[in-house]
Design goal:
This is Oxidase EvaA. This protein has about 450 residues and is α+β, with helices and mostly antiparallel strands. The chain folds into three domains: about 160 residues, EvaA sugar 2,3-dehydratase subunit (Nucleoside Triphosphate Pyrophosphohydrolase, Alpha-Beta Complex); about 100 residues, no CATH class; about 150 residues, Nucleoside Triphosphate Pyrophosphohydrolase (Alpha-Beta Complex). It contains eight helices and 26 strands. Strands 6, 7, 8, 9, 10, 11 and 12 form a seven-stranded mixed sheet that branches. Strands 20, 21, 22, 23, 24, 25 and 26 form a seven-stranded mixed sheet that branches. Strand 21 and strand 22 form a beta hairpin. Helix 4 packs across helix 8.
């Protein structure tokens, strides 16, 4: 445990210096352990495990673009993302680890206690065992606080889900070299540091219920049965929760998305170029090869394909106070690879560079409101990395933008206003909030400001 975050940063830098790592791009056709199937063009591992890169044909999307083809990551197995929580002196702390991921823009970030694919924790790679895994498999010591299957980035994964877990323990837990206990108050401060707390930690924390007892004392963080904030009072929501669930069900019913896997070699609009697979207009992302060395991982060296975004994304909630209660504008978004086709998403979720030369009526709704927000409207603005195990140097700008009181309450049918409490409740169920919304929800729920 650390007295303050300055002490944590000193420890973090010391542990990073103690480790040896590198990640460098290499041509896809030279990846050790991977090959291109001669019939389909799909990129597969020699074991048949881990994941494959295949083609996806999308039509009737209901999005700004109705149909397209793209490479997609197919990883049917479910991983475990788990955080151990323990109270010290009545203050809840999370056990997080320094973890090197090949796609991390800065090498090391703070990960959950356990962050492992099934192939990893079943030993397919032939490496070391995953520490603390016994707390997240039955029978386990400790008490389940949260346990739900949650989606991953559905623009790049096909129906990929991981088990998000929080387990509270009372017994002593041995702390390994690259692990540390952090209070929720410390995590709240560290969330403001770009590229530090990784996506997997953020999605798990979205399932934590935190109450600041007494309202202002950072030492009073604890778990509690309900999120309590004076700006999110019971009974003060614009829509009842059952109405929101009906809205979400109707959005799923309207979804006409058709998708099917196709050979990667049949994906038009994409081409092999200099050992990578790129979009012909150099948009969206590229499929690249990466050579990895990491002294602190279960396996110290490997190679793999990864997706590299061509530009930084923007992910934002518009917020507005309605009768004094803060509401978020949520989108029912058709997702390329979502398990159910539609998930609740932020108001805006896109790579703006992809829309620079398209007509205004084909740009994402509310993008101008986000990018044109006045400084005093922006409640949160930070750059954070996405999942570094499959995505190379993927970053998004996360924003919370509070609109003026004259912003319309009537919104298009695929959008609705929810309170923070209602959105938090939906995290308890899989296939409701997408991973981008869960990250923003974590920022929002740890965001500190005086009630206004």
């Amino acid at each position: 445990m650390f007295a303050d975050t300055a002490e944590f940063h000193a420890w973090f830098q010391d542990r990073c210096r103690a480790q040896d790592y590198r990640a460098a791009k290499v041509p896809l056709d030279r990846l050790d352990g991977w090959h291109t199937d001669p019939d389909s063009g799909n990129i597969v591992h020699r074991t048949g495990k881990f994941f494959t890169i295949e083609g996806l044909d999308v039509s009737r999307s209901g999005r700004e673009v109705e149909a397209w083809r793209q490479p997609i990551i197919v990883q049917a197995e479910q991983g475990v993302l788990g955080i151990l929580v323990k109270e010290f002196g009545g203050v809840a702390h999370c056990l997080l680890q320094i973890k090197m991921e090949p796609g991390n823009i800065n090498g090391f970030q703070l990960s959950p206690t356990v962050q492992a694919t099934r192939s990893n924790f079943t030993g397919v790679h032939g490496g070391k065992a995953v520490p603390y895994l016994e707390y997240f498999t039955a029978p386990r010591p400790g008490r389940i606080v949260s346990d739900v299957l949650q989606s991953e980035q559905a623009s790049w994964f096909l129906a990929k889900r991981n088990r998000n877990m929080i387990v509270q323990v009372e017994d002593d837990v041995p702390v390994l070299d690259d692990f540390c206990w952090l209070s929720f108050a410390q995590i709240a401060e560290l969330l403001r540091v770009p590229d530090l707390i990784n996506m997997d930690t953020r999605t798990v924390l979205s399932g934590a219920v935190v109450r600041r007892a007494g309202g202002t004392d950072p030492a009073a963080d604890t778990f509690h049965g309900a999120l309590t904030r004076s700006w999110d009072r019971d009974g003060a929501s614009l829509h009842a929760t059952v109405e929101l669930l009906s809205w979400f069900t109707e959005a799923k019913g309207r979804c006409t998305l058709t998708r099917q896997l196709i050979p990667l070699s049949k994906v038009d609009g994409w081409s092999w170029r200099d050992g990578t697979i790129c979009h012909d207009r150099d948009q969206h992302f590229a499929v690249v090869g990466v050579d990895v060395h990491a002294s602190n991982r279960e396996v110290t060296g490997w190679q793999q394909p990864m997706f590299e975004p061509r530009s930084r994304g923007v992910i934002a909630f518009l917020t507005r106070r309605i009768d004094g209660v803060l509401h978020l504008l949520v989108q029912a978004r058709t997702e390329t690879g979502a398990f159910d086709g539609v998930e609740m998403a932020p108001t805006v979720q896109c790579q703006p560079e992809n829309y620079r030369f398209v007509p205004a009526d084909r740009k994402p709704l509310f993008l101008d409101e986000v990018l044109g927000a006045r400084p005093e409207q922006i409640r949160w603005d930070s750059i954070h990395s996405e999942e570094g195990g499959r995505f190379y140097h993927a970053q998004n700008r996360y924003l919370l933008v509070e609109v003026d009181d004259d912003f319309p309450l009537e919104v298009p049918e695929n959008y609705t206003w929810t309170t923070l409490r209602q959105l938090t409740e939906f995290v308890r169920y899989g296939n409701h909030l997408n991973v981008e919304a869960r990250s923003l929800l974590t920022f929002f729920r740890f965001y500190q400001e005086d009630d206004r």
